Amino acid sequence: MTAPEDLAQSAIYRHPSDNAFGRMLPRLLHASRWSRLRRALSQRWPMPALVSDVRDVVYASWWVDVRHAPPPPPGHHYVVHAGRTPYTILSYRHGHFGPALAGPLRALMPSPQQSNWRWYLRRDDDPQGTPRVLFDRNVMDQLAFVAGARAFSDAMQPHLSARFEHVLDADGAGHTLIESGQGSAPALHLHWQAAAGGSAAGWSAAFGDQAALLRFLTCQDEAIARTCDHRWASTRIALPVAVDTLQPLRLSGELHCPRLQAMGVALESGLAFRLPRVPFRVVSERLL
Q1: Do residues 70 and 259 make contact, with C-beta atoms less than 8 angstroms apart?
Q2: What sign does the dihedral 49-120-206-256 (CA atoms) show?
Q3: SS3 171
Q4: Given this structure, which CATH class describes domain 7-287?
Q5: Percent of the chain that is helix, strand, coil (3-state, to 5)
Q6: With b meaning 16 or more CB within 10 Å and e meaning fewer, what string describes 84-96?
Q7: Does pTM surpass 0.85?
Q8: Which residue, among 200, 196, 139, has the nearest Cα to 172 in the 3D structure?
Q9: What contacts 24+ positions apart, CB below 8 Å, involve 193-196?
Q10: For residues 53 and 181, what is the distance between their CA atoms, to the nearest angstrom?
Q11: Is there a contact between 4 and 133 (Cβ–Cβ < 8 Å)?
C-alpha cells in the first residue's frame, strides 16, 4: 500500500486550462510574500464573518481503511472503528455567499456551487467531544470565489472545477458531476435516488443509533486544513443542522471517484442523505 499523501501537496492549485492565464494564476495564488503579509494583518484585523443560505446539501459517506488517511494535525486523532475511518463528500449550492456586514446587499452576491471532501478528527484531550473535520479536498465552480478564498484564507483553499453540476430533480433523484480538466480539482460523478429509509448497515455498531450517526456526520463547529506551506489552519463555523430534516438517499447508477476508488472503496456502499437547507456562517480563522 502506498504511503498516505501529504495534504500540503494536494492543496497546491493547478488551473483547469493550461493556457497563459492558467500558468500565471497559481504563481499569484501561491505568492509567499502575500501570505506573510496577510497573516500579519490578520493578527490585527481578523477576517469578517461570512454567511450563506446553503441549500440542497447532499452528503455521501464511506468507511475507508485508516491507513490511507494522511497524518492528522498535532493533538488530534482519527475516529476509527474496526480499522476504518469515515470519509464524507458533501456537495451543495450556496445562497448569496458573502460578508455578514453586507446586510441586505448580500442578496446581490453570487451563489457558487461547492464540494467539501473531509475526514473526521477528535482532540486527544477531548476524545468524546464534538468531531472536527479535516479538509481533504475543496472544490468550487466560480473562479472569483476560488481566487478570493485562496488569497484571503488559509483554512479554505479550494480548487476550480472545469465543470460542476449539482442537480436535484423534483422526485428526489439527482447527480453531482465534477470534472477536473487539466487542473487540481478531484473528479467525481455520483447519482442518487430518494430512499424510503436510511441504510446504516456497517455504521450502527460504531455510533449506536441513527440519530448519533447523523449528528456525527453533520454537526461540526470547526474545520482544519493543511496549507501549501505546511502549516495547519483552523476555521470556526456555525452550521445548525436539524437532523430530523435529513432525507435518506440511495447511491445508484454511474458512480465514479478516482480518489476513493484508489483507496479500495466500493462507491455503491456509501451512506447518503440530503439536507434541504441550512444557514452557514464562517466565524473566525487562525493558524494552529
Answers
A1: no
A2: positive
A3: coil
A4: mainly beta
A5: 25, 40, 35
A6: bbbbbbbbbbbbe
A7: yes
A8: 196
A9: 193/249, 193/250, 193/252, 194/247, 194/248, 194/249, 194/250, 195/248, 195/249, 195/250, 196/248
A10: 29
A11: no
Is it the case that residue 172 has pLDDT exceeding 60?
yes
pLDDT above 60 (res 1): no
What is the mean pLDDT of the segment spanning 262-272?
A: 94
Phi, psi of 29 (to 5 degrees): -70, -20
Give the C-alpha separation, 199 to 60, whole Å.
12
- For residue 260, give the nearest of 134, 86, 139 by alpha carbon: 86
DSSP E strands in the chain: the ranges are 50-65, 76-78, 84-93, 98-99, 113-123, 132-140, 159-160, 163-168, 174-179, 188-194, 222-226, 232-238, 247-251, 271-287
Spatial CB neighbours of 139, under 8 Å, sequence gap ≥ 6: 114, 115, 117, 158, 159, 160, 161, 164, 178, 185, 186
- Cβ(61)–Cβ(217) under 8 Å? yes
- Neighbour count for residue 170 (Cβ, 10 Å): 6
Whole-angstrom Cα distance, residue 65 to residue 67?
Answer: 5
Cβ distance 185 to 16 under 8 Å?
yes
- What separation in angstroms does the CA of 21 have from each of 15, 40, 64, 227, 240? 9, 29, 37, 23, 40
SS3 state of residue 89: strand
Query: Could you read off the pLDDT of 178-199 as tens digits, one per residue?
Result: 999 999 999 999 999 999 865 6
Residue 28 one-letter amino acid: L
